[in-house]
């Protein structure tokens, strides 16, 4: 089906085409609409070879087709002929350069920008292709066309964390993807964005990467937030001379919870040969209750908290080791949330001594670990810095990986993560135009 003489200027505007384009015909295909357009003769005829303006039209090229943004949720293709120009000064021939046409891909610039903006959302490539009425290969070509270099500068508060690796580089010898077990996430904690991701978390690799920044940029980092990874702390000490290393409280509490769980599993293993299954089930069902913060439960006002405490009291009467570990956890929560900053250091010293003097081997190991990271834990208290931004961004990365059904190439995965979780921010105000129209500032057609 063809539309005759659709040359109204409003139609050109609604199709997202410039004013010098004239729509001469529209043919409705099965899966898309084909717009036949004509171009006005170019006014600026500058030779790209010598810069001369003495150029004339030599001929019109054969018809070519490019993809355009969808109109009325239907895919759109444009069919047109370009002018071939001739330079009288250097005898060179060249095609006119159209600003609304992408220079290397067979799509319009507007479609390229729309695909780039859609790539910043938590959408798979197949869904983005369906929204814009193109194939998945077109979206992949746009993603490959994007070049994302290393960040030009480092933030004042640098967060670093690892996440599970699902992409790598192709190994032609084995015909397989060489995937590292963990990737590295570098974040600007103050702004809440990812500045870069790296294929591995090896300390030598990280040091080599950060040495690529000038010393003035490395001296700019004031706080280095990480977990209890010895490689990360080594990088901070060697590369960032002015940075205060801060260990996030989440990782400290998680370490205490793992020690409590180790005690529970040890007690369960000791009871496997016994016939008392009631105690075994009591231990197994208490896995979640043993990691609960009583301060948080009081704040939430949980109505089932009294029953939970009764079950824990019965458990602690049978297993005193668990009672010691649980009290150590609650005391650490008290130090972190209730004790004034001025007295936290002395309270932490007493807490470490209490765990170290305990007869429970898991608590002795815990005291040794906390003593090792004590200075960095106190930095997190003093400067109110945490690595929660990296943890939240890791969740977004995992969501993007699930939505994308995995990305094999690390460079493609890196660009997709930086587009989604990086410095690009969109202003999403869908009702702004209605407010403008109500105030008499709307767009007039």
Output the radius of gyration. Answer: 31 Å
Largest sheet: 5 strands, mixed
* Silhouette: elongated
What is the number of helices? 18
Helix proportion: 40-55%
Average the pLDDT over all residues and give the rounded result: 86
Which features does this protein show?
15 strands; alpha+beta; 445 residues; 5-stranded mixed β-sheet; 3 domains; elongated; 19% strand; 18 helices; Nucleotidyltransferase, domain 5
Blueprint of the fold:
Layout: E1 2-4, H1 9-14, E2 21-28, E3 32-39, E4 55-60, E5 64-71, E6 74-80, E7 83-87, E8 93-95, H2 109-118, H3 125-132, H4 136-145, E9 157-164, E10 168-171, E11 176-179, E12 182-188, E13 193-198, H5 203-210, H6 215-218, E14 223-226, H7 230-239, E15 244-247, H8 249-270, H9 277-285, H10 294-300, H11 305-318, H12 320-337, H13 341-356, H14 361-372, H15 374-383, H16 388-403, H17 410-421, H18 432-438
Parallel strand pairs: 3-6, 9-14, 14-15
Antiparallel strand pairs: 1-2, 2-3, 4-7, 5-6, 7-8, 9-12, 10-11, 12-13
Helix pairs in contact: 3-4, 5-7, 8-12, 8-14, 11-12, 12-13, 13-14
Report on the structure:
By secondary structure, this protein is an alpha+beta fold. The chain folds into three domains: 2-101, no CATH class; 157-248 and 388-421, 2-Layer Sandwich (Nucleotidyltransferase, domain 5), CATH 3.30.420; 251-383, no CATH class. The protein has 18 helices and 15 strands. The strands form four sheets. The protein has a five-stranded mixed sheet with strand order 1-2-3-6-5. A five-stranded mixed sheet has the order 13-12-9-14-15, sandwiched between helices. Strands 4-7-8 form a three-stranded antiparallel sheet, with no helix packed on it. Strand 12 (182-188) and strand 13 form a beta hairpin. Helix 12 runs antiparallel to helix 13 and helix 13 (341-356) packs antiparallel against helix 14. It is elongated and about 95 Å long.
């Amino acid at each position: 089906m063809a539309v005759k003489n659709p040359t109204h200027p409003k139609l050109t505007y609604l199709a997202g085409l410039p004013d010098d384009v004239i729509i001469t015909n529209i043919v409705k295909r099965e899966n898309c609409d084909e717009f036949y357009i004509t171009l006005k003769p170019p006014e600026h005829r500058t030779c790209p070879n010598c810069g001369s303006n003495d150029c004339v039209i030599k001929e019109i090229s054969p018809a070519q087709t490019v993809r355009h943004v969808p109109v009325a949720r239907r895919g759109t293709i444009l069919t047109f002929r370009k002018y071939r120009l001739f330079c009288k000064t250097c005898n060179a021939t060249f095609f006119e350069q159209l600003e609304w046409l992408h220079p290397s891909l067979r799509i319009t610039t507007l479609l390229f920008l729309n695909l780039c903006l859609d790539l910043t959302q938590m959408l798979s490539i197949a869904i983005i292709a369906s929204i814009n009425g193109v194939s998945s290969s077109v979206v992949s070509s746009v993603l490959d066309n994007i070049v994302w270099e290393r960040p030009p500068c480092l933030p004042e508060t640098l967060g670093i964390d690892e996440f599970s690796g699902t992409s790598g580089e192709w190994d032609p010898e084995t015909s397989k993807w060489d995937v590292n077990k963990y990737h590295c996430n570098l974040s600007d904690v103050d702004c809440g964005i990812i500045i870069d991701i790296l294929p591995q978390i090896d300390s030598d690799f990280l040091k080599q990467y950060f040495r690529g920044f000038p010393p003035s940029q490395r001296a700019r980092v004031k706080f280095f937030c990480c977990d209890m990874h010895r490689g990360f702390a080594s990088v901070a000490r060697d590369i960032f001379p002015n940075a205060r290393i801060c260990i996030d409280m989440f990782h400290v509490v998680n370490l205490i919870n793992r020690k409590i769980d180790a005690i529970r599993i040890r007690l369960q293993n000791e009871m496997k040969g016994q016939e008392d299954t009631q105690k075994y089930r009591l231990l197994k069902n208490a896995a979640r209750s043993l990691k609960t913060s009583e301060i948080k439960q009081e704040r939430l006002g949980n109505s089932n908290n009294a029953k939970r405490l009764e079950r824990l009291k019965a458990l602690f009467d049978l297993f005193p080791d668990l009672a010691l570990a649980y009290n150590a956890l609650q005391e650490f929560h008290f130090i972190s949330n209730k004790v004034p900053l001025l007295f936290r250091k002395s309270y932490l010293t007493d807490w470490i001594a209490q765990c170290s003097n305990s007869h429970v081997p898991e608590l002795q190991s815990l005291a040794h670990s906390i003593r090792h990271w004590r200075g960095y834990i106190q930095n997190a208290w003093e400067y109110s810095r945490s690595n929660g931004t990296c943890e939240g961004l890791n969740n977004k990365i995992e969501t993007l990986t699930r939505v994308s059904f995995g990305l094999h190439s690390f460079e493609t995965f890196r660009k997709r993560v930086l587009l989604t979780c990086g410095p690009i921010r969109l202003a999403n105000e869908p009702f702004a135009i209605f407010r403008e129209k109500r105030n008499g500032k709307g767009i007039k057609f």
